[in-house]
Amino acid sequence: MFYRPENGHGLPHNPFNAIVTPRPIGWISTRGADGSDNLAPYSFFNAVAYVPPQVMFASTGTKPDREGTKDSVANIRETGVFCVNIVSKALLPAMNTSSGPWPRDTDEFTLTGLAREACETIACARVAEAPAALECRVTQIVPLLGRSNTMVIGEVTGIHLRDDCLVDGRFAYETFTPVGRLGYRDYAFVDDPFELSRPGEA
C-alpha cells in the first residue's frame, strides 16, 4: 500500500509508529526551578554526534497542567539541563510506571521506588540503578512542525557507567539487556548481539 500521511492511512492503528524500530528509550530526568524532580521516558531519542558527544529527544505531546508541553521540556526550559538514564530489562516496570500522565507535582523517583543519585556536572538527579546515565546541558530547543512537537538537543558533560556493566574494557550491553521501543504497545529486548565489520576494516 501507499498513503500520504496528510490524507490518513485507513488502518486501525498508525503504521508510522512501527516503521522506525527498534528505537532506544531516553529515560529523561529533570529538575524544575522549584527543586522538584521528574522522570519520564521518550522513544524519540538518540545519540547524534561523537565529539563533543551529543544526544537528542523529542516530546510530542502536552499535559493540561503544562502549557503546550510536558514536564520534561518545561523543566529543561527553566534549568537548561537534563539527564538521560539508560533503560535495562530489570528497570522496564519502573520505566513504564513513570510514563503515566501524572500531575506535575508527582515525583516519579518516589512513585517507582527508584533510588536517586546526584549528577556530577549538572543540578539534576539520575537513576542510581541505571546501567548508564548521560548528564546533559541543553544546546538547542527546537520547535518542530505540528502542535506540541519539540526537540531538545544536549551536549553530554558527564557519563556514569555502572561498574558491573564494564567487561574487558567495554561497556557490555549483554550485562543488562537494553530495551527498545517497537510500534504500538510493543517493546523488544536486545539479547542477541553480533559483530559485523565494515568493508575495509581490519
Short description:
The protein has 202 residues and is mainly β. It has a single domain, classed as Electron Transport, Fmn-binding Protein, Chain A (Pnp Oxidase, Chain A). The protein is built from 4 helices and 14 strands.
Helix and strand topology:
Blueprint: H1 16-19, E1 23-24, E2 26-31, E3 37-42, E4 45-49, E5 54-59, H2 71-79, E6 81-86, H3 92-98, H4 108-112, E7 116-118, E8 125-127, E9 132-143, E10 150-161, E11 166-167, E12 170-171, E13 179-181, E14 187-189
Please explain how this structure is put together.
The protein has 202 residues and is mainly beta. It has a single domain (22-189), classed as Pnp Oxidase, Chain A (Roll). The chain is built from four helices and 14 strands. A seven-stranded antiparallel beta sheet has the order 3-2-6-9-10-5-4. The protein has a three-stranded antiparallel beta sheet with strand order 1-13-14, with no helix packed on it. A hairpin with a 6-residue loop joins strand 7 (116-118) and strand 8 (125-127). The longest helix is centred in the middle third of the chain and has 9 residues, at 71-79.
The first-to-last residue Cα distance is 42 Å
CATH secondary-structure class: Mainly Beta
Q: What about the largest sheet?
A: 7 strands, antiparallel
Share in β-strands? 35-45%
Shape: globular
Question: Order of SSEs, N→C?
Answer: HEEEEEHEHHEEEEEEEE
Which properties best describe this structure?
4 helices, single chain, 202 residues, 3-stranded antiparallel β-sheet, Pnp Oxidase, Chain A, 12% helix, mainly beta, 14 strands, 7-stranded antiparallel β-sheet
